[in-house]
Amino acid sequence: MSAKPLAIRARQHATTLSFLAPALIGIVVFFGYPLVSAVYFSFTRFDLLSAPQWVGLANYRRLADDPFLLQSVRNTLWMVAVFVPVRIVSAIGLAVLLTQLKRGAGFFRTIFFLPALAPPVAATIAFVYLLKPGTGPVDTMLAHLGIDGPLWFNSPEWAKPSLVLLGLWGIGDLMVIFLAGVLGVPTSLYEAAALDGANAWHRFRYVTIPTIRPVILFAAVTGVIYTLQYFDQAAVAGSIASGQATTGGGISQSFGFPEGSTFTYPLWLYTVGFRYHALGYANALAVALFLVAFAVTVILLRRAKAFSGEES
Amino acid sequence: MTAVLDAPPTVVNRPPSTRKARRENRLVWIARHSIAIALAIMFLTPVVYLVLISLMTSNQALTSDYWPNSWHPENYVRVFQVTPLPRYLLNTLLYAVTATALMLLSSVPAAYALAKLRFRGRNALFLVIICVMMLPPQVVTVPLYLMWARYGLTGSLWPLVVPMLFGDAFAIFLLRQFLLTIPQEYLDAAKVDGCGEWGTLIRVVLPMARPGIAAAGLFQFFYCWNDYYGPLLYTSENEQAWTLSLGLASFHSVHHVDWNLVIAATVLTMAPIVVVFFFAQRAFVQGVTLTGVKG
């Protein structure tokens, strides 16, 4: 490399740069610059009308005693603690089931995968209807079984579990990832386990699970990050279930319905920034979110190097 | 091809079981397929219900019936009469097609450089791209919004489309993973024949990378088609620029009694996705498996 004449190396650099230029500009303009500004704005009082005013750590001090923030963090943590594991366990279950089917696996895979593509807004509207309290199809079916159905999206206790159900319907993408993982487990491991007298559960517990552990870790970390930005379904479910006027910009009035039970962190960030125009405080919220997401990303990159290609 | 033949035996090609176990196996076979069928019904039921409800009268849609007393396919026509659905559709298509085309134009060369060219800082750059991919968009929302507002472009789809001219982290990641699988020998051969790097990319790599590019393009297209946060942020003040997602979310509030129409509009929004999926199934599943992340 170093033996090559300078002119050739310069030309190589120019070529490489020509490939990367758009992406490099994109990262700087649409990621680097806004990230730095977000940090700067987070130290200011800023309402769009007048110029940003430096206030030091005031916005960060406000984080400590903001009841809405506390509520949104609690809801987001609930989603992380319930939604992420439930999704992973169900996706592994579906993937293992698919590997056990000798006939029709492709057909079933298609059916399980398809809902993952449904637009979130459409899927959410559909689920609010299906889970309508009392007269909805699901409650009707439960009534046939003699069960009094819950109020689903209209009840503070059931609104988040309803969102989890909606999420499970769209589990297909995660299932396909686990399917690839499970299919990649070498048969010799299962045979060795069978020789040791392992039954089906033991083989799953002591062979399949440890082998696909990197995939599980990957799914957990990306799941956490996905949950940290959970917005569409929570926003739409709140607005549809509440039945309030929600045209365009006014949608944030129904955020969190009912009783703030679906009020997630991104919803609070949006409300602060785009309804109250407290842009300084919104950016403090954004910086806090960035730190958490960044920490989770670092864990992923450290622990699951297999997914970043040649890095190891 | 040889790589496939040399692969170790996996769950799919497990050695055949002994005759003794056959009867027992048949019971297990039935149990497994019953579970699969039950689950398939659960996954399909919401869609079937929606189609049925979309064909009811608005009064019946409020009841707990799930079979229409009378069939009203004209609900689908009425959706077009009471909403600017064609406009939403046009905006959505405009957003999705333009963004996908621009994204591929800028991301393919970047992915090629990251996969096949040697240069200093390559791994560092790749790490930065992964970080960008993993971060919630809400983090940079406010400054970006202010930037677009300064140029007077809020209230339009420009803020969603223009950034794609400068590459998309997720697509670069996906394409790079795909391009890594193209053997170096093909590129070397092209260079021996006098191709430059750009010539190699366009004449040799592009034709070979078609499945990967198709997967990346589909992800982008579906991401845009489904996107709600972006259009809500930038276009909510100007109904002329609304997309299907936005129109659908507010459609309910305008016609909140007419569940049959709301659901018909919902079905109409989902339908194109289902159609495209059936034509592009393989590219899709490949894309998901390849990256482990949905776009």
UniProtKB/TrEMBL annotation, chain A:
Q: What CDD domains does the record point to? A: TM_PBP2
Q: Which residues form the ABC transmembrane type-1 domain?
A: 73-300
Family, according to the entry, reads as follows: Belongs to the binding-protein-dependent transport system permease family.
Q: Which lineage do the record's taxonomy fields give for this organism?
A: Bacteria, Bacillati, Actinomycetota, Actinomycetes, Micromonosporales
What would be one Gene Ontology cellular-component term for the protein? plasma membrane
Output the SUPFAM superfamilies linked to this UniProt entry: MetI-like
Q: How does it sit in the membrane?
A: Multi-pass membrane protein
Listed name of the protein: Carbohydrate ABC transporter membrane protein 1 (CUT1 family)
Listed GO biological process terms: transmembrane transport
Asked if Ion transport is a keyword of the record, the answer is no
Which organism's genome codes for this protein? Krasilnikovia cinnamomea
Q: Where in the cell is it found?
A: Cell membrane
Q: What is its main location?
A: membrane
Q: Which segments cross the bilayer?
A: 20-43, 77-99, 111-131, 163-185, 206-228, 278-301
Give the UniProt keywords, A-Z. Cell membrane, Membrane, Transmembrane, Transmembrane helix, Transport
TrEMBL record, chain B:
- CDD domains in alphabetical order: TM_PBP2
Task: Supply the Gene3D superfamilies for this chain.
Answer: MetI-like
Q: Source taxonomy lineage?
A: Bacteria, Bacillati, Actinomycetota, Actinomycetes, Micromonosporales
| GO annotations of cellular component type | plasma membrane
The protein's UniProt keywords, in alphabetical order, are: Cell membrane, Membrane, Transmembrane, Transmembrane helix, Transport
The record's section on PANTHER family has: ABC TRANSPORTER PERMEASE PROTEIN MG189-RELATED, ABC TRANSPORTER PERMEASE PROTEIN MG189-RELATED-RELATED
Localization (cell): Cell membrane
Task: Tell me what organism the protein belongs to.
Answer: Krasilnikovia cinnamomea
- Residue intervals of the ABC transmembrane type-1 domain: 89-280
Q: Which GO terms describe its biological process?
A: transmembrane transport
Q: How does this chain sit within the bilayer? A: Multi-pass membrane protein
Chief location category = membrane
Task: Indicate the transmembrane segments per the record.
Answer: 29-52, 93-112, 124-148, 160-179, 200-223, 259-280
- Protein's recorded name: Carbohydrate ABC transporter membrane protein 2 (CUT1 family)
Q: Which Pfam families match?
A: BPD_transp_1 (PF00528)
Q: Which SUPFAM superfamilies match?
A: MetI-like
Family as reported in the entry's similarity comment: Belongs to the binding-protein-dependent transport system permease family.
